[in-house]
Amino acid sequence: MSSITLPGLIHPHDLALDRQFAMTLARGLEVLRAFTAAHPVLSNREIADRTDLPKPTVSRLTYTLGMLGYMSRDVDSQKYRLASGVLALGHPLLASMKTRQLAKPLMVGIARQTGCTVNLGLRDRTDIVYVDSVRADGRNEYLPDIGSTYPLLVSSMGHVLIHGLPRPQKLALVNYLKLHDGEMFAQYSKGLDENGKLFAEQGYCLSSGAWDRELYTIAVPLKGAPGEPALSMNGTLYAHKNARQTLVREVLPLLKQAVHEIETSYGLHPG
């Protein structure tokens, strides 16, 4: 069994001998995760290739998930896509996140004052997943959808969530990322290390064109309300002449102030 205890980083097969672990449920969830924005329609064979599950198993799971309203089947191509049942599962999480509700008006204020897109995200396996996004300036083209994901290794929010972990968990996650995709890790590990020093000294991480050469972001950590996971908030500028300087001098203080207000509201900064 894997020694990594962070949620989402244990392979289902590592728990094959755990009597409390429902393998069929885990496989069904892996089938749902096979779909992405880039690959929204998949055949049973394609799902099997993406999940390493036997095709007969995939066929039973897609049939079951279809009957339950989580997938739909195209009559002509006989391929599957996610259905409304999946979307409905996510809404209770978003609606009940106190941190997200408290952050929204502050994010709007920062976006209006600076022209940034302001985003809120948390970790999902090896990715950052966006739970909110605000854009006040139409000239800033960057506006990710809620629920969209980007690799932890290439985003300032991802770096914040990595470096904000307790040391044992951080080392475990970094090692997992290295094993999970060695090529990506080799490409972005230098930026991760540089941001580690920046995070330790000044409490933020910066990304300058790593994912998109015209996209610049700055991110800070945000402790979740009781019972909620750690998050990160960032400010993003796209195709901006003095993006780095603007982010550090103008956006960063506003992000830190917003985080302090949010955390204070649920008692993390008494007095």
Structural account:
The protein starts with 22 loop residues before the first helix and ends in a 6-residue tail after the last helix. It has helices at residues 23-33, 44-51, 55-67, 84-96, 98-114, 156-163, 167-180, 182-202, 243-265; strands at 71-73, 80-82, 117-124, 127-135, 149-151, 205-208, 215-222, 231-238. It has a six-stranded antiparallel sheet with strand order 5-4-3-8-7-6. A two-stranded antiparallel ribbon has the order 1-2. A hairpin with a 6-residue loop joins strand 6 (205-208) and strand 7 (215-222). The chain has 271 residues and is of the alpha+beta class.
Task: List the keywords.
single chain, 271 residues, alpha+beta, Arc Repressor Mutant, subunit A, 2 domains, 6-stranded antiparallel beta sheet, two-stranded antiparallel ribbon, 17% strand
Structural class: alpha+beta
Helix content: 40-55%
Q: Give, in spatial order, the strands making up the sheet with the most strands.
A: 5-4-3-8-7-6
Number of folding domains? 2
Largest sheet: 6 strands, antiparallel
CATH H-tier superfamily of the largest domain: GAF domain
Order of helices and strands: HHHEEHHEEEHHHEEEH
The CATH topology assignment of the largest domain is Beta-Lactamase
Mean pLDDT, all residues = 91
Could you say which overall geometry the principal axes of the C-alpha atoms support? Answer: globular
CATH architectural name of the largest domain: 2-Layer Sandwich
Q: Approximately how much beta-strand content do the residues carry? A: 15-25%
Rg to the nearest angstrom? 20 Å
Number of strands: 8
Q: What ranges have pLDDT less than 50 throughout 5 or more consecutive residues?
A: none
Return the CATH class of the largest domain: Alpha Beta
Between the first and last Cα atoms, what is the distance in angstroms?
A: 45 Å
The number of helical runs is 9
